[in-house]
Design brief:
The structure holds 2 protein chains of 2 kinds. Helix content of chain A is about 10%, strand content about 45%. Chain A is built from 3 helices and 10 strands. Chain A has helices at about 5-10, 80, 160-165; strands at about 25-30, 35-40, 45-50, 60-70, 70-75, 95-100, 105-115, 115-125, 140-150, 150-155. The longest helix of chain A is centred in the C-terminal third of the chain and has 10 residues, at about 160-165. The radius of gyration of chain B is 35 Å and the shape is globular. Chain B has a 6-stranded mixed β-sheet with strand order 14-18-19-17-16-15. Chain B is built from 19 helices and 22 strands. By secondary structure, chain B is an alpha+beta fold. In chain B, helix 4 runs antiparallel to helix 5. The chains are: A mainly beta, B alpha+beta.
Chain lengths: ~170, ~700
Amino acid sequence: MEATSTPRAKAKRAGSEEPTAGVEQYLTFQLAGEEYGVDILRVQEIKGWEKATRIPHSPHYVLGVINLRGAVVPIIELRRRFALESVDFGPTTVVIVVKVASDRGERTVGMVVDAVCEVYNVPVSDVKPPPEVGGGIDTDFVRGLATMDEKMLILLDIDKLIVDTIFDGAAVAA
Amino acid sequence: MSFDAEMEEIHKIFFEESHEGLDAMESGLLNLDASADRETINTIFRAAHSIKGGAATFGFVEIAHFTHDVETLLDEMRNGVRAMSSQAQQLLLQSVDCIREMIKAAQAGGAVDVQRVAILNESIKDLLASGDVPLTPAPALPVTEVDTVPPAVETAAMPLMNVEGTAASSPVPGWIIRFTPHEDILRTNNEPTRMFAELAKLGPVIADADISAVPALEDLVPESLYFRWTLKLNAVVDQRRVQDVFDWVDASSKLEYEEVSARPAASTGGVGTAAASPAPAPATAPTAAPKAAPAAKAAGDTSSIRVSIDKVDSLINLVGELVITQSMLSQFGERFDPGQLERLREGLSHLSRNTRDLQESVMQIRMLPIGFAFNRFPRLVHDLSRKLGKQVELRLSGEGTELDKTVLEKISDPLVHLVRNALDHGLETPAVRSAAGKDPTGTIELNAYHEGGSIIVEVKDDGAGLNKARILNRARERGLVPADAELTDDQIHNLIFQPGFSTAETISDVSGRGVGMDVVRRNINDLGGHVQITSNEGRGSTIKIRLPLTLAILDGQLVRVGAETYVISLLAIVETIQVKADQVNRLPGGVELFRLRSEYLPIIDLGQQFGIGRDPSTSCDGLLVVVESDGRRFGLMVDDLLAQQQVVIKSLESSYRQVRGLAGATILGDGRVALILDVPGLVQTFEQRALQAEAASAAA
């Protein structure tokens, strides 16, 4: 594929380099064998898993809230959100804390994922729209697909995912 | 950019001060009733004057104009040329409202009701003209200096000419202003360039500076101004608007206005650059289109608090102490010797005391005297009693009682409702009162004081009181009460808090629609407080509102349910009891009741409500926390009582979303998050579930 052509291959793994125009940086993480990417500008921090305080009357994928330096931050388990098989949390399990924009201002949310992987510079032109598969609701949260190192990256629309997942109270019932 | 931000900041202060000024005017005007003391009028006048001045300075021309006439009227009263009439008082009160609207509009960038402003302005002008006193515009300028041209002369002499549709005749219609500032004008914080910029908003300005008076460099005083200007404004505007620009120039500066009209008759000599000088006009505003006024921008809804300097000082002191304690403790970190254990303990106890004091002081900053909420009532009562034809005396006490700003904001509306109710329903007309042997003037008392950890606000009237028979009848008609039920006085009185309940025979625009009291009670419950009413037929009623001091901190009881910890507000807890199995009865439908002395309490099992897996066997010897909500009692079944402590309330809604039965979250000493129960919400969900269960069992 085009993505492996030389100039881009050089730039792809440059986490420390300034992204140039037309290139977006993504933090990727592992979830049930697939690699997902989130816009790195949304990521506030990555922290180890700690037990959350469960919130009654919440969807099963909302694990609860944690204390993040004095702020109460909800935690969602992405495996459960995507209806993937739930596994026990292991040593690589981490919480990616993201900031998302919602109608009611900026919200901070933690997502439990299997492991973090890399930071990629993804040229915007390389992002392909997700294939239309009828009925697959979850593809609503996919901004696009990209290929890096011969791997497929699923780039998430994190705003939509988080806002639809937990702030749209009526849409999701337990 | 930063100038705009600065300007916005200054505007904000102006708005804030104007609102304060308006409040002062309002309370002054209301006080004029009782004793028309000169100082009161002076206070009102001064407030109007500073609003006008501020408005003119910051370019709120409409406000300045409007306030100007108000000020003129007040000035006549101040000087004793005009007596204070009730008509004038009413008009001035309306003007205060109008100015307030205009300021609000300027603040939010909204539109002003131009018509209303015009009508009011007209009535003020009529009033001004009706007096046997000559018009004295611009009273703000003391006309003393000989070389000053009093602006009044020209206003009277020169009617505004319509110069629209001028042909290509040579002089451009507009104004020529000869401005000879006093040397010291800069020391009075007047900045001519600002005025020119202001003038440029009216139309294109050509400025010529005469620098012939500038002395040699060695004689030059940098703070003095040696320039003279001839300004040509190429726009047809009212002379007043031109004058307003120079409103703040003191009398020792010389100002001459000359109108240039397209009609040859009016264009007298001196048109053009009179004091022509080869020097360019260095400091004047260019004739370019004026910058968009930053005033139009909405000030944003960031609310601010004015904090007394004492509170800030005490905070600084505390922080100082904290720093000392910290440095003392950090010494232990470097080299610790077990012999110093005692000193370490001492340091830690200092630290905990400092922290507690600091917390208290910070909370104090949010505390405002309830007087802020009470202040609007004199006006309200004044207007309303007039409208209803009742004589009322309003007594305020405990205005200094402080409570949290958020609580204060939310309590205002319910209070207004209660006072209106007291006036409309409670107090009788003077005739009725006299007939009943009471003073024809009724009394409404607003009182605030501390009691325990809460604030009590009382609204008391000496009117007719609640008519028990009528309330009971109405309740029976509406099916709220079974026909044969015997109710205590308290229960009857509490019926008025039922939604849609009203005994008023006629619906007035004041009250009587029956949407009031239940809203009042709900608002107060939302704040974590409750309302009580006591009434004595023929003697009046008292409504007592109990509110928590603050919404940010709560005295909580930590309880354990399964493996989870929850916080219950201590204010809601009545008592806690050990439950024995034989005291629990089960109703059909599954609701459990507990017999507490002579009362049956429904039991809300928190474990079940929150879906916490709990050992069912413990339900028989668990602990029952008896809570009160809306005057009714419920038992919350928990597994254990933990510590009692103050917790800082963190909104769950702002980080996650609102959850039924939860009021928020807090962070415990060990860093874990614990959830705070919302007792009224919990009761509601419980009742809904019970109803559903009943419906389900009935259907089966």
